[in-house]
Each structure stands twice: as C-alpha cells, then as structure tokens.
C-alpha cells in the first residue's frame, strides 16, 4: 500500500494507533480535506506549483476549464429560471465547490453579453471550504468584484440562513469529491471497509458497518446489493442536499457530476464500485498512493439526491446527461460557422462525446417554490421520468 515514509501517512497511522481504525470515509476526508496535508486544502499537495485542475501539471480536466461552452449554456438556463421566478429584484447565483472560479467568471461574462438585465440583479455566493481554491477564485473574479458585482464567499452552507435564497444553486464536480463509505455485501450481510495500520503503512480491513445509516441508505433506495459487490455510500451527499433544501426559498438546484441512478450504480460493470484516484491524468484504483497528492472521487448516486430532496421539499424536475443538456440549450448555435479545428469545436466535441463526458456526466435539476413542469435544459432526455423513482 502506501510507502511508510510520507509524513501525512505517519500522521494517519499514529491517529489509527491512538483511536482505532478509520472508516474509509474518514480516511478520504483526511486525504482530501485535512487542514495541513489534504489534497484540496493545499491545492493538490504542498509541492504543487500549478493548479490540480486543467492546464499543465494538473491531475484532471473539468468541463469549465475546457471552454466557456457550459457557462454559456447555463446562462441560457438561468434566463429561463429568472423568467419563471418573475425576474426577482435579487437573483442568487450560488456555486458550490467552484474550484478555480472559472465557471462563474465565464457565466458573468456571458450574462454581461447576453442577459444584461439579469447581471445587475445577480448576488453571487461561492461556497468553498478550501483556502487554496478560495484564493484562486478571488484572483479569477477580482475584475468582476472591482466592477461592483455582488460576490461573496462562505466556507459552508451552514453560514446561510434558512429559506433566504431565490435563484439557482449550482455545482459541477462537487458531490463526487465528498468522502464516501465503502461497503461490500458478504454472505452474512453488509460489511464496511476500514483503514488500519501496520507499522507506518496503511492497510484495509473489513468489519461491521460503523452506522445503521449505511443499510438504511440502500433499503430506502430499494437497492439489493448482490453478494460480492462493493459500492460506495455518500452520507455526506445526503447531508449536503438537505442543507441545499434548507437555504433555498424559491428556485432551482442544478447538480452536474459523474454518476448514475441507484440501479445503474450497482450494475455488474460496477461490481467493484466507482472509487478512482487521479494524479497527472493517470487513473488508478489505489487510494493509498501519494496520499494528499492525488485526487480521490466516487461517482454520484443521483437517485439518492433526488429521493432525499423529495423528503425535504425539493421536487425533482428531471435528470439528463451532458450531451442532451448542451444540445437542449443550443450548443449547435455556439459552434455554427466555426472552423472544425478551432478550440471551440474541439471542446464541444469533447463535452458531447457519447462514450465520454457527454454520457458519463449527468445533470439533475430540482426545484422549489416555482412553477415548472420542465426546464429548457431537460428538453431532450435519454431517461424516462420514472428513472429516479424508488419502489416506495
Ligand atoms: C473536483 S473540484 C471541482 C471544481 C470546479 N467545480 C470545476 O468544475 O472545475 C471540487 C471542488 O469542491 C470543493 N469542495 C469540496 N468539498 C466541499 C464542501 N463540502 N464545501 C464546499 N466546497 C467543497 C473543493 O475544494 C473544490 O473546489
């Protein structure tokens, strides 16, 4: 597993010796969000000179760092939401987990060009727990702030009062960065993965589930995990969508991420789960290498977000994939007439790719306090409405 000479791993093994094994979720929480060594908190590790997202020396690309296409399409979606909300005097645009702040920067630019009546009513809030990323966002958005746009930062949705927001709460690749529990169905029932230590090295061990919430999560979604299957459970995502529902008075929640419905999540091709580690564009399934210097992610269970959302007042508007979302919002108009070799056409092809981002990324929309039967981004849908429904 991990070479025992990393100071971060030594710190973890000491913690395990003093307090006992960590659930995998706790290990992942530390690996990504430990104040001193966590991957996101240090901006990709202490020795990193460049950002871990996009560009040279990075670990992975995201849609916003590829091109402003997603931002342009999202502004079209925002315009429709604004209209349905009756053009409120203040339209909250909340981005959660904004990374470098590229998406919001490009959305403001697009608003200025295409939606000039919306721009002065926007009140932007960036929810970011990492000081390293917050600094990058502040630099990326400095010109807009100087121009007088209302932009503020919070560490956590906790900082926002109940039912205080009217507008849109948006995230791209936030939920896949939440810590997950890893469970496996054994002959005798559900088991949970723990991280323990041998000397200064990390080791895995299966044990009893740390909380009954893990079994409840599966039964609420009517998932019967077959014997021998491993999967991830994000209790953090459940907590998060409840917080989102708490702060939203009227508007739409747009969640963009890699992911599946509950049934597809446990399909035979995902028998070993979806946990992945990314380092310099190399993908691995070993989370114990380069702890604090590689990204760890697990695909999102969209049924869980929809199901929990319904319990706390968010109506599921619908689910689609990135390809259909961008097509519904007129991506063809954005590339019409452009040279086939141009960066905009190349980026569009990558975002739409049927065996790539176009289908692995899903978009879940949920709403409250607003009359919508559907929204423009959901016009083309590869799924039927019942796809997120559970048997209950
Ligand atoms: C994979 S990056 C995605 C960045 C950006 N949205 C993009 O698409 O390029 C995840 C982002 O979420 C932030 N993050 C993770 N957990 C968070 C939480 N609980 N609250 C707020 N931000 C969080 C990370 O610091 C990082 O900025």
Tags for this entry?
single chain; 392 residues; alpha/beta; Rossmann fold; 8-stranded mixed beta sheet; 5-stranded antiparallel beta sheet; 15 helices; globular; binds S-adenosylmethionine
Tell me the fraction of residues in β-strands, as a range. Answer: 15-25%
> How many structural units, i.e. domains?
1
The class by helix and strand makeup works out as alpha/beta
CATH class: Alpha Beta
Q: What share of the residues lie within helices?
A: 25-40%
Number of helices: 15
**What is the radius of gyration?**
21 Å
Small-molecule binders here are: S-adenosylmethionine
Largest sheet: 8 strands, mixed
pLDDT < 50 runs, ≥5 residues: none
| Mean pLDDT rating | 93
- The general outline is globular
The end-to-end distance, rounded to whole angstroms, is 42 Å
Per CATH, what is the topology? Rossmann fold
CATH architecture: 3-Layer(aba) Sandwich
Instruction: Please tally the β strands and state the result.
Output: 16
Report on this structure:
The chain has helices spanning 7-19, 24-33, 63-66, 69-84, 102-114, 131-140, 142-146, 213-220, 235-247, 262-265, 302-311, 322-328, 331-335, 343-352, 357-360, and strands at residues 22-23, 91-96, 122-127, 150-154, 165-172, 181-186, 189-198, 201-207, 230-233, 248-260, 276-279, 282-284, 295-297, 300-301, 315-321, 361-368. The strands form three sheets. Strands 2, 3, 4, 5, 10, 14, 15 and 16 form an eight-stranded mixed sheet that branches. Strands 1, 6, 7, 8 and 9 form a five-stranded antiparallel sheet that branches. With 392 residues, the chain is of the alpha/beta class. It has one domain (7-388): Rossmann fold. Bound molecules: S-adenosylmethionine. S-adenosylmethionine (SAM) is lined by residues 40, 53, 62, 64-65, 96-99, 127-130, 133, 172-174, 177. S-adenosylmethionine binds at residues 40, 53, 62, 64-65, 96-99, 127-130, 133, 172-174, 177.
């Amino acid at each position: 597993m991990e070479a025992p000479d990393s100071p971060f791993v030594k710190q973890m093994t000491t913690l395990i010796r003093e307090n006992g094994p960590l659930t995998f979720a706790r290990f992942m929480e530390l690996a990504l969000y430990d104040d001193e060594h966590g991957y996101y908190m240090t901006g990709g590790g202490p020795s990193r000179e460049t950002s871990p997202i996009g560009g040279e020396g990075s670990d992975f690309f995201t849609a916003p760092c590829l091109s402003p296409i997603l931002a342009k399409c999202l502004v079209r979606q925002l315009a429709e939401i604004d209209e349905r909300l009756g053009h409120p005097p203040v339209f909250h645009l909340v981005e959660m987990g904004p990374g470098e702040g590229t998406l919001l920067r490009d959305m403001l630019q697009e608003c200025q060009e295409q939606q000039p009546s919306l721009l002065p009513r926007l009140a932007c809030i960036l929810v970011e727990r990492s000081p390293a990323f917050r600094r990058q966002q502040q630099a990326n958005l400095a010109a807009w702030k100087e121009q007088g746009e209302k932009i503020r930062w919070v560490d956590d949705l906790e900082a926002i009062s109940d039912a205080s927001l009217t507008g849109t709460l948006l995230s791209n690749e936030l939920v896949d960065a939440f810590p997950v529990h890893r469970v496996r169905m054994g002959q005798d029932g559900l088991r949970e993965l723990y991280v323990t230590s041998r000397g200064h090295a990390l080791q895995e061990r299966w044990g009893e589930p740390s909380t009954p919430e893990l079994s409840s999560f599966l039964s609420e979604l009517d998932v019967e995990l077959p014997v021998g299957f491993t999967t991830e459970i994000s209790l953090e995502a459940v907590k998060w969508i409840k917080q989102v529902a708490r702060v939203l008075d009227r508007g739409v929640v747009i969640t963009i991420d890699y992911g599946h419905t509950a049934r597809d999540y446990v399909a035979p091709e995902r028998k070993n789960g979806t946990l992945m580690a990314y380092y310099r564009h190399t993908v691995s399934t070993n989370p114990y290498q380069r702890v604090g210097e590689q990204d760890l992610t697990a695909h999102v269970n969209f049924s869980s977000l929809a199901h929990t959302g319904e319990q706390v007042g968010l109506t599921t508007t619908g689910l689609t994939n990135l390809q259909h979302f961008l097509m519904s919002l007129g991506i063809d108009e954005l590339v019409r007439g452009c040279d086939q070799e141009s960066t905009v056409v190349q980026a569009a092809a990558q975002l739409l790719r049927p065996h790539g981002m176009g289908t692995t990324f899903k978009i879940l929309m949920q709403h409250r306090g607003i009359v919508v039967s559907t929204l423009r981004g959901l016009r083309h849908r590869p799924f039927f409405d019942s796809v997120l429904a559970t048997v209950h």
